[in-house]
Amino acid sequence: MPRESETRQPPSVVLDDVYVTYKVFEDVRPTMRRFVANRFKPREYAPVHAIKGVSLTVERGETVGIIGRNGSGKSTLLRAIAGLLPPTAGAVLASSQPVLLAVGAALRPDLSGRRNVYLGSSAIGLSHDDIDRRFDEIVEFAGVGHAIDRPLKTYSSGMNARLQFAVASAIEPEILLIDEALAVGDAEFRRKSAARVREMHAAAGTVFIVSHGAGLRDLCTRVVWLDDGVVVADGVPEDVLSAYEEATGGALEGDPGGG
Amino acid sequence: MSTSSLPEHAQGLRQLTAVEAEAMGLVRMGERPNLLRYIRELLERREFIMLIPRSEMRSRSMNTVFGSVWHLLNPLMLAGVYYLIFETILGTGSRGGIDNYAAFLVIGIMVFTFTQKTLVTGARTVVNDVKLLHNVNFPAAVLPISAGLSEGMSHLYAIAAMLVAVILMGEPPHLGWVLIFPIAGIQLFFNWGLAFFSARITVHFRDTEQFLPYVTRIWLYLSGVLFGVERISDPVKRTIFELNPPYAYIKLTRDLIFGNPIELRFVGLAVGWAVVMFVAGFLFFWQYEGEYAHAA
Predict the structure, then answer these.
(1) Helices (DSSP H) in chain A: which residue ranges?
(2) Interface of A with B in 213-252 (CB under 8 A)
(3) Which residue, of A119, A246, B223, B265, is most buried by count of CB atoms within 10 Å of its CB?
(4) What is the residue-wise DSSP string for B212-240?
């Protein structure tokens, strides 16, 4: 029997005993005065252990749902996978740079939707030519129509979210990370975005979706339940979601994926 | 962990260690890239770097009728006040062989303001855009670099205003003035170096932003903006004043505008300070890369 490592395809993402600790300073502002008073020692902080020893091996083509209560560490885990929040201990490895679907912070409300498409797309690494080529597609997918030349601040929150999703998903990364994005917009847009996630999955991409739980059943091939920074369960969606529903009491509300 | 219920294609595959994954060609995420890779990543983001200041200027000009003109008012007003005090009231301004004290002041203040504003804007970048670092993957140095670029673009307006002002003050324009732009370009690198320092230091001490205005004000008084450094008779003291980086940029710009011969040692100082500051600042900033998003 050949050794597993000789026959095994390289996975997409590996998390090896990952810890992420935030440096939270609570109500204490880091000031020069305190720095001098503390005899030039680095600032003291209350560490928040957001992720405590998570290990996962995710194969190419998996769509992994991450569920858990608010504050269970879902978003932190996603940002650790993206390399945005480096692990305090352990290691995160990926076969290519994962891209987090979140461009809101790069956008400027004063500028038109058009300029923001360029700004947001270039923030996630698209070249000007790439954006030119995909511009019409992005606008169509966002469904904002003529409003594309209006300042972003005049957009409804739904339009804004749609534009962000359209921009971020234009990059077509091999590993896509989605943070609650499917819960935005109206039913039609949620259907469209779920379809886009399936498209990416079909293109042999690996997708991570963070959610409170809704809509994962159809979309995911695997669900990881996170609680207090620790993996509680990891398996096929039916099993994990049922267990999660049982533990949290009551069925998960809504199903954006099913439409 | 119910490993038995993993999806079919992942069936029976065990958890890999970091070492095994690395052997299979996976790359560690969130590690500080080495210097060469960091520079390459920055170059790949040049379009984003250019787009941030353009967007900022546009969004700024959307909200004010006069847009960038407001940024010229402050230095010109400052020049007016100093002229009133040192020339009109005290009558000491033009001592030491300064023929056109008004033009001397305007040039000094405009050139110094470029450095001052980049230092102050740079201090805000990382702290203000921490949310962006939290969500989008790019080298954090993009932020101070585009902040410096943004100030550089504003400085083009300042140069235009400065030239109009000195013409009105009786300086005849000549071709040598074109060289003001490459000097401003060299100064931009010096400024970038400062912005790298102030951006990171502010992450450690938020107060930096508050006390920087005092630092820059004192620095202005020491940079030969208000008086001719040539007037200092003690050669040691004069050399100390001449070694002050902003003075090189101010001195070169003045000599160009007044049509004085350019002194090579100031060209050397201008370039030298730019290189030293840029490299040191860049290294200092890069050293903390990966931690900036943590500094929420």
Answers:
(1) 4-7, 32-37, 74-82, 113-123, 128-142, 157-168, 187-202, 216-219, 237-248
(2) 221-222, 231, 233-236, 239-240
(3) B223
(4) HHHHHHHHHHHTTSSS-GGG--SHHHHHH
3-state secondary structure of B92: coil
Q: Chain B residue with minimal CA distance to A55?
A: B15
3-state secondary structure of A210: strand
Q: What percent of chain B has pLDDT over 90?
A: 62
Residues 6+ apart with CB under 8 A from A24: A45, A46, A47, A48, B296
Q: Whose CA is closest to B48, among A117, A171, A119, A170?
A: A119
Domains of chain A: 4-98+212-248 (3.40.50.300)
Contact A62 B7 (CB under 8 A): yes
Q: Which tens digit of pLDDT belongs to each residue from B39-58?
A: 999 999 999 999 988 888 88
User: Which residues lie closer than 8 Å to B79 by C-beta, 6 or more apart?
Assistant: B102, B105, B106, B109
Type of residue numbered A175: I
Cβ neighbours for B279, distance < 8 A, ≥ 6 positions apart: B193
Q: How far is CA B21 from CA A5, A16, A80, A143, B28, in A?
A: 10, 9, 17, 41, 9
Query: Within chain A, how many helices (H) and strands (E) appear?
Result: 9, 9
Range list of H helices, A38-96: 74-82
CA dist B189 and B95 (Å) reads: 33
Q: Is A51 helix (H, G, I), strand (E, B) or coil?
A: strand
Tokens of A106: 């790069």
In DSSP terms, which residues pair with A231 in a beta bridge? A226
The 10 Å CB-count burial string (b at 16+, else e) for B67-76 is ebeebbeebe
Residues paired with A18 in a beta bridge: A54
CA atoms within 13 A of residue B205's CA, in its CB half-sphere: 18
pLDDT tens track for B256-296 = 999 999 999 999 999 999 999 999 999 999 999 988 887 65
| Among candidate residues B132, B76, B225, B274, the one with its CA nearest the CA of residue A103 | B132
pLDDT of res. A1:
45
What one-character DSSP code corresponds to residue A214? T
> From the candidates A92, A149, A165, A176, which should be mutated to test the interface with B, based on the most B CB atoms within 10 A?
A92
Confidence of residue A45 (pLDDT cuts 50, 70, 90): low
**A60-72 residue pLDDT tens:** 889 999 998 888 8
A176 interface with B at CB cutoff 8 Å: no
SS3 A156: coil
